[in-house]
Amino acid sequence: MLVASVITLLLPAVALAHGVADSDQLFLERSVGLQLWPFGYLGAKHMVTGYDHILFLIGVIFFLYRARDVVLYVTLFSLGHSSTLLLGVLSGTHVNPYLIDAIIGLSVVYKGCDNLGLLKKWFGKQPNAKAAVLIFGLFHGLGLATKLQDLTLSSDGLVPNILAFNVGVEAGQLLALGVILIGMGFWRRTPSFASQAENANRLLVFAGFGLFAYQLEGYFYG
To answer: Residue 168 class from Cβ within 10 Å (0-12 exposed, 13-18 middle, 19+ buried)?
Structure first.
């Protein structure tokens, strides 16, 4: 099962949420002037290895069968996280990374509950799914920004370098999305998909609460 496999592989790396590898941090802090390709590569690498982003994307596209719906929701998510990534880094707006990452964990919980039909059951109406994806996208972008803000980045070439990083993030998202869609396509054609879908989304809820609890522990005791 796709979701179970992803969660099993990614949860051991929970401590690295939105983290930047030591070698990458060293490169970023030593970079002066235009470094478009390296920043773009690191942006793509960060998204592909960002398991919280991947889990959220799985939840978003889980029951989307038409290409135009996938494009719409992924575009909304991209608009959200691109906006706050650029704004956060370039304006110097700083927020507590533990709290932001806790909200990102809740975004995974939200999509799992939404896919299970629990939100409509609890609140009597279905929340606006498009608005939710856009809003959570803002928090995902802010999560990326907080990690870059922890580094001492040179002001020489900062704007184009951060733009390149953001382009890399989008490229990495497309790559991850392509793999997810291929995996989902094969899984949906199996007779077991209907019976496994509910448990898969329960796993998403479980993983999201795990991320949320871990980040809250870091906020209070880290």
So the answer is: buried
Give backbone dihedrals phi and psi of 150, rounded to 5 degrees, phi first. Answer: -75, -15
What sign does the CA torsion over 86, 164, 101, 115 have? positive
Distance between CA 98 and CA 103 in Å, rounded? Answer: 9
Q: What is the Cβ-side half-sphere exposure of residue 128, based on CA atoms within 13 angstroms?
A: 7
Which tens digits make up the pLDDT trace of 153-173? 778 888 898 899 899 999 999
pLDDT in tens, 18-71: 455 666 766 776 777 788 888 898 888 888 888 889 999 999 999 999 999 999
pTM across the whole model: 0.86
DSSP letters, 171-209, are HHHHHHHHHHHHHHHHHHTSTTHHHHHHHHHHHHHHHHH
Site of tokens 């996208």: 137
Give me the residue spans of the domains in the chain.
35-221
